[in-house]
Design a protein that fits this description.
Blueprint lengths: L1 H45 L10 E2 L9 E2 L3 E2 L2 E2 L4 E6 L6 H6 L5 H10 L14 E6 L8 E7 L2 E6 L7 E4 L3 E10 L4 H7 L4 H11 L13 E11 L2 E14 L4 E8 L4 E4 L19 E4 L2 E6 L4 E5 L2 E4 L5 E3 L4 E9 L3 E7 L4 E8 L1 E2 L8 E2 L4 E4 L10 E8 L2 E3 L17 H17 L22 H9 L8
Antiparallel strand pairs: 1-2, 3-4, 5-6, 6-7, 7-8, 8-9, 10-11, 11-12, 12-13, 13-14, 15-18, 16-17, 18-26, 19-25, 20-21, 20-24, 21-22, 22-26, 23-25, 26-27
The chain binds zinc ion.
The site of zinc ion (ZN) has 5 residues, from loops.
């Protein structure tokens, strides 16, 4: 009996406490799990103002079933494990202003700035751009600062280990598009009226600017473009490549075909000649000629007749001034008449000079090699000048001449052996361009071609283009 009791007692002491313990442990587990979900949901509701993360929790109300938590991923993180703060950089707001509010101290901010300079300089954070702060534990300093300079990239600043910071390229979905139109007013206005993105207009102009004088286009001129749109996460973020462009005026038709190989890149005409010439027509974009080259003109400041050995382009102060051709900077100086000016030697024969700059481009110094289109300074009115403009001077064999009257050297043609490869590309692009029908906006006429481009949904395209953002300074 006593042995039995002992046994029972043993049994009691050995089994009962264990089974009670088992029950209570599982109860505690459930309690913690539900409490956890409750606290989590509460915290989610509380910080709903600062987070735009989509709902993270799907709670099945059925008794006995567990809640299913779907992880929300963004920037390569499972956001659910962080406190998420989202914001937009404000005017005159610096990184320190933001991070100090998230318990990151000056020493850490300074270290971050230094160690991430090569990845993405924190001094280049721009107003109106979005950022996200991730914090594992808000009683401590934040863990990550994520900045989105443009739709194509984001930068993950690791606030604890700055060296682990990285710039991440988002995957882009390319959609092939075609556009066309009949000019009514400027190309710019026509394309706007057609719902076409200004980025496409700029690319069209770059492709054709050498052949077509966009300052003097005529009503009724026609254009076509064959290009790609970039989508990220289903959202249209910009124009990718322009494969080909077409322009037609009363006199002529022009094709520009994009050709990219190891040796060639840019636009070429149907014969394989580069669309770009050795010299740009003007050193500033979107300007007007305010005074032409002449051997005799009335000088507005000196109040007497004097030759004007340059061409003046009026443009707002700060407009970038470009080198019209490849070359080497031979002068970067200030004189009383010229103000701030730069002179560039292009070859044995030609040099160009740019006067009255408000300031020089920072890295442009005597000896600097520049490419055609490189910015060398900014429009101003330093020296002898009444208004903001650049006085563009063209030197041939040490003598100033009117560039508009020169037969300038043609660009280097494509080597003959590369032509067959180019012609293949050209033929396929020309074939597509030729099939695009013209659309006339905003007034529809009966001029529409009977040809239909396969797979093209013009209305859909129009709508898609119209949704494009204007934040495309890439
Ligand atoms: Zn001048």
């Amino acid at each position: 009996m006593s042995a039995k009791e002992d046994k029972l007692g043993d049994a009691n002491t050995n089994t009962n406490p264990t089974s009670t313990y088992k029950v209570s442990r599982s109860k505690v587990f459930y309690a913690i799990a539900f409490l956890g979900v409750f606290v989590y949901m509460l915290s989610y509701l509380v910080r709903d103002n600062t987070s735009t993360a989509t709902p993270l929790v799907n709670v099945d109300q059925g008794i006995g079933s567990f809640p299913i938590i779907e992880p929300t991923q963004k920037f390569g993180f499972v956001l659910d494990t962080f406190d998420v703060f989202e914001g937009t950089i404000k005017e005159n707001e610096f990184l320190a202003d933001i991070l100090l509010q998230h318990k990151v101290d000056f020493v850490a901010i300074d270290r971050l700035a230094k160690e991430t300079r090569d990845i993405h300089d924190v001094r280049s954070l721009r107003a109106d751009k979005p950022y996200t702060i991730l914090n594992r534990d808000t009683t401590n300093s934040a863990d990550y600062f994520i900045f989105e300079p443009n739709p194509y990239h984001y930068v993950v600043y690791d606030l604890k280990v700055p060296a682990k910071s990285q710039k991440v390229k988002r995957p882009i979905d390319k959609v092939i598009k075609m556009a066309s139109g009949v000019v009514d007013g400027s190309l710019w206005n026509t394309m706007q009226a057609n719902g076409l993105n200004y980025e496409l207009t700029t690319k069209m102009e770059d492709a054709l600017a050498w052949s077509v004088d966009f300052y003097h286009i005529q009503k009724g001129d026609k254009f076509k473009a064959y290009y790609e749109q970039d989508f990220i996460d289903g959202k249209l973020v910009g124009i990718g490549k322009l494969f080909g462009a077409y322009y037609e005026n009363a006199d002529q038709e022009y094709y520009a075909v994009n050709f990219e190989t190891e040796k060639h890149h840019g636009f070429f005409d149907l014969k394989g000649r580069p669309m770009k010439k050795a010299f740009l027509k003007a050193p500033v974009k979107y300007s007007r000629i305010s005074s032409r080259f002449s051997n005799r003109r009335f000088h507005p400041v000196l109040k007497r007749y004097k030759s004007h050995l340059g061409t003046d382009y009026a443009a707002p102060r700060g407009t970038p001034i470009m080198s019209v051709a490849d070359g080497v900077v031979t002068k970067r100086a200030f004189t009383r008449n010229n103000g701030n000016y730069v002179k560039i030697k292009h070859d044995k024969v030609y040099s160009t000079q740019y006067l009255h700059m408000s300031k020089f481009k920072k890295d442009v110094k005597v000896g600097t090699r520049v490419k055609q289109g490189d910015v060398i300074g900014y429009v101003g009115k330093t020296g002898l000048a009444t208004g903001n403009h650049v006085c563009y001077r063209f030197w041939k064999n040490g003598k100033q001449v009117d560039p508009r009257r020169q037969n300038l050297p043609p660009p280097d043609p494509m080597p003959e052996k590369d032509l067959p490869e180019y012609f293949k590309v050209r033929d396929s692009i020309k074939h597509i361009l030729d099939q695009i029908e013209f659309k006339e906006f905003p007034i529809a006429t009966d001029e529409e071609s009977d040809e239909k481009v396969e797979g093209e949904e013009s209305e859909a395209e129009k709508t898609a283009v119209k949704t494009e953002g204007d934040d495309q300074a890439i």
